[in-house]
Description:
- The chain is an alpha+beta fold.
- It has two domains: 8-161, no CATH class; 166-278, no CATH class.
- It is built from eleven helices and ten strands.
- The chain has helices at residues 8-14, 27-35, 44-48, 50-53, 55-60, 62-69, 114-117, 128-135, 169-176, 180-190, 249-261, and strands at residues 17-19, 75-78, 97-102, 105-109, 143-145, 203-209, 221-226, 231-236, 244-246, 274-278.
- The strands form two sheets. It has a five-stranded antiparallel beta sheet, covered by helices on one side. A five-stranded antiparallel beta sheet has the order 6-7-8-9-10, with no helix packed on it.
- Strand 3 (97-102) and strand 4 (105-109) form a beta hairpin.
- The chain is globular and about 60 Å long.
Amino acid sequence: MSRKFITYEEYKSHAYSVWFSIGEASDLAKSMIFDFGREPDVLTPLDRGKDWLFSELCKFQPKTGKLLLEGGELFVGSRVPIRPPKKVGDSPKGLLSLYIEVQGKLVQIGIPRPSIRDRQTMADDLPMAIRNGYYGKRLIDGLTLVLDTASLPNGRLLPIPIACGWSIINHWSKALKLDKNILDKIVKTLELEQNKDGNYYDLRSFLVHFPSDCSDISDSDVLFLHQPKKQIIHMGNGDIANIRVLDKYSEAIDQYCTHTILNKPERFNFEPFFSKQKILG
């Protein structure tokens, strides 16, 4: 199903600021990022360029990397002004995001927060091609297709930024109103470990493709990371009883991302990339 995505011109008409180089950025923005270092460094990629930023993506996910390289120039945007510090020694405060326009559609490039850049994250358990491609070298934190000029990105459609959160199987169980027996079977088959709070954190969704009506999962595709085995598991149409291991995950996700960014009208078919054996028998 094709969607209406946001273009650069539409974004610019609603943005407070748009910068294509570090030199264009405000002093408050540079101070917030370089002096205090508490916000994602979205400015350095403007100086280093696309080849540098997407080097790992091009290596491990070549179709998606090529598509982004062929897009427009990187730019940083802000919907609201950066607030100056309230007192000496305080950091300015604001939200800046890094974007690129690809064939008339705006893609936000997630940049990891300094607080998680050098520590273990959920993405470290992804298979290497996906980890290095979409979360590589601590430079990129997922991708988001921008659907609205007003709301914040929620990570739908492309590999979800860690900052947006990856839903655990317990959340999906509630959303799908699963019978407890099915959840128990998943837990037993995948050997999930229960946390002391009762949740299972080793099966999380990192890519979610819903139709435009996000309340309808009849045409949905969800990719889960099974952390203990570093496997990627696919759920189609909310049918969790028929989840399958995505054997050819690198090729599948690369083709899916280009398919989605190009906004092709037909639904992407993950089936040729599945393992033959069903997980739940």
